[in-house]
């Protein structure tokens, strides 16, 4: 790994230079973070699970013709992806009230929303990723009106597909965060899905018990984060006997 040039390192992933022009290698770390990395632990095996779950989801999205950066999984922790110019926005799709929406608007957690809501957040850790409007996005040049339309249309398609995919295995898709990038091919540019889709970026509840099967188990000190991720992967049918490792549980990382 040290022989490859690191392009970018985030909270949960590292991007390395790919084997061919226009490609990158995406490495999934075991770091679990919350509250803009104020809370940080190493959860042994989390990166393997997220790699497998995100691979499965992106493969399904590719299969229905939705444009993504995913090419193929390389190994237990790495994916080969297309290099894109990331649009500095997080797009959140909400089906059920939870998290910051409940806190901001006083809506009881678990309330099914009248319709799915799409929100935009400006990707900036120093500002804690503030929620922004389409007016902010166009005024500051983060994305053009046609790009906003593309992101919203893709987000609705992704939500429709994933809601059915997860419901079919007894999981309710409460909300999820996605990111998009600009893919340049010859003289053409198009907006495609990037980053990952995993229990790190989705709120997933068991349909019957409403047990949380996502990163809220870490955020809220509920315990059993790795077991919940394993259960998601198991229900999706993407685990075999040899992978992923069970891990040793969370390891506290002290801040400087």
Can you walk through the features of this model?
The protein is an alpha+beta fold and 256 residues long. It folds into two domains: 6-84 and 225-240, 2-Layer Sandwich (Phosphorylase Kinase, domain 1), CATH 3.30.200; 85-206, ATP-grasp fold, B domain (D-amino Acid Aminotransferase, Chain A, domain 1), CATH 3.30.470. 27% of the residues lie in helices and 34% in strands. It is built from six helices and 15 strands. The strands form three sheets. Strands 8, 9, 10, 11, 12, 13 and 14 form a seven-stranded antiparallel β-sheet that branches. A five-stranded antiparallel β-sheet has the order 1-2-3-7-6, covered by helices on one side. Strands 4-5-15 form a three-stranded antiparallel β-sheet, with no helix packed on it. α1 runs parallel beside α6. The longest helix has 23 residues, at 145-167. The radius of gyration is 18 Å and the shape is globular.
Rg result: 18 Å
Poorly predicted parts: 247-256
Note the main sheet: 7 strands, antiparallel
Helical region count? 6
Proportion of strand residues:
25-35%
Question: How is the secondary structure organized here?
Answer:
Layout: E1 6-9, E2 13-17, E3 23-28, E4 31-34, E5 39-43, H1 46-63, E6 70-73, E7 78-82, E8 85-86, E9 89-96, H2 99-105, E10 112-122, E11 131-132, H3 134-139, H4 145-167, E12 171-185, E13 188-194, E14 202-206, H5 216-219, H6 225-235, E15 250-252
Antiparallel strand pairs: 1-2, 2-3, 3-7, 4-5, 5-15, 6-7, 8-12, 9-10, 9-12, 10-11, 12-13, 12-14
Helix pairs in contact: 1-6
């Amino acid at each position: 790994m040290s022989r490859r040039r690191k392009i970018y390192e985030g909270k949960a992933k590292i991007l390395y230079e790919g084997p061919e022009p226009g490609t990158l290698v995406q490495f999934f770390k075991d770091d679990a973070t919350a509250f803009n990395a104020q809370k940080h632990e190493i959860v042994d095996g989390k990166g393997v699970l997220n790699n497998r779950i995100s691979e499965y989801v992106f493969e399904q999205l590719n299969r229905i013709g939705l444009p993504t950066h995913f090419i193929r999984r390389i190994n237990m922790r790495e994916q080969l992806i297309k290099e894109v110019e990331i649009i500095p926005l997080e797009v959140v799709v909400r089906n059920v009230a939870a998290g910051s929406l409940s806190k901001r608007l006083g809506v009881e957690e678990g309330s099914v929303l009248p319709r799915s809501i799409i929100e935009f957040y400006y990707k900036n850790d120093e500002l804690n990723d503030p929620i922004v409007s389409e007016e902010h996005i166009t005024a500051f040049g983060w994305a053009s009106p046609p790009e906003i339309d593309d992101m919203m249309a893709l987000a609705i398609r992704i939500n429709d597909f994933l809601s059915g995919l997860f419901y079919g295995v007894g999981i309710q898709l409460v909300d999820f965060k996605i990111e998009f990038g600009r893919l340049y091919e010859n003289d053409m540019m198009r907006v495609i899905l990037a980053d990952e889709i995993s229990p790190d970026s989705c709120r997933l509840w068991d349909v019957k018990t409403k047990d949380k099967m996502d990163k809220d188990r870490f955020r809220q000190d509920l315990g059993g984060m790795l077991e919940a991720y394993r259960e998601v992967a198991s229900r999706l049918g993407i685990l075999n006997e040899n992978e992923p490792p069970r891990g040793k549980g969370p390891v506290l990382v002290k801040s400087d």
